[in-house]
Fold this sequence. Notes:
65% of the residues lie in helices and 3% in strands. By secondary structure, the chain is mainly alpha-helical. It has one domain: Fumarate Reductase Cytochrome B subunit. It has a two-stranded antiparallel sheet with strand order 1-2. A hairpin with a 3-residue loop joins strand 1 (118-120) and strand 2 (124-126). The longest helix has 39 residues, at 137-175. The radius of gyration is 19 Å and the shape is elongated. The chain binds protoporphyrin IX containing FE (2 copies). One protoporphyrin IX containing FE binds at residues 18, 21-22, 25-26, 65, 70, 74, 89, 92-93, 96, 162, 165-166, 169, 180-181, 183-184.
Amino acid sequence: xxxxxxxxxxxxxxxxxxxxxxxxxxxxxxxxxxxxxxxxxxxxxxxxxxxxxxxxxxxxxxxxxxxxxxxxxxxxxxxxxxxxxxxxxxxxxxxxxxxxxxxxxxxxxxxxxxxxxxxxxxxxxxxxxxxxxxxxxxxxxxxxxxxxxxxxxxxxxxxxxxxxxxxxxxxxxxxxxxxxxxxxxxxx
Length: 188
Ligand code: HEM
Ligand code: HEM
């Protein structure tokens, strides 16, 4: 078993990945909720690029976590707070990959996919998930629509858990006066 960090902090790599992913996810959630018929195509393309980047960062984060489990939980946490925060972290790990994967599947089932190649940040040619090629247009429409529903509702669950996570962090820092934020920041 790899050892826990003994200085009460996550490693700099974990901190960098945490805040990059948090920034990207919050940007995509806000941008996604603001989508309308007038949203320019470039904004949707940026949304897809950022979401696929989050999948890559998730893989790095997961691999890093295997060797660096992070510090022991704050000793001041009551047992229910500890259980709730660990469950929220597990759900966040799950949703941070599930939500963008559902979006990517939704986009891959689009019948216009073949004529609109995916280009990350307008420069890196990227692939669609090759599951829908053999379907008729009606079959693609069905998957496109239903996978959008999955993408949308899982995003809403993600918003709820992120809200709980932020509320928990603020409570420990400001109401319980615990060194909560320094755990997820750089330092010795
Ligand atoms: C989309 C946004 C976010 C996601 C997906 C996310 C995800 C996570 C995950 C999975 C962990 C557990 C790390 C581990 O043990 O491996 C964590 C820890 C943490 N996060 Fe976030 N986070 C997000 C946003 C935020 C924000 C906005 C704050 C600040 C208010 C924050 C503060 C923290 C802190 C302080 C910890 C350390 C918890 C501890 O072990 O004491 N996070 N986050
Ligand atoms: C961090 C990851 C992501 C988050 C948090 C996210 C969140 C959202 C949200 C909240 C919406 C709006 C849903 C609604 O209308 O209520 C949305 C729409 C959408 N998402 Fe994502 N998404 C992510 C990744 C992706 C990825 C990777 C793709 C495709 C490669 C994608 C493709 C789309 C598309 C095509 C729409 C519909 C845009 C339109 O209305 O034209 N998303 N997303």
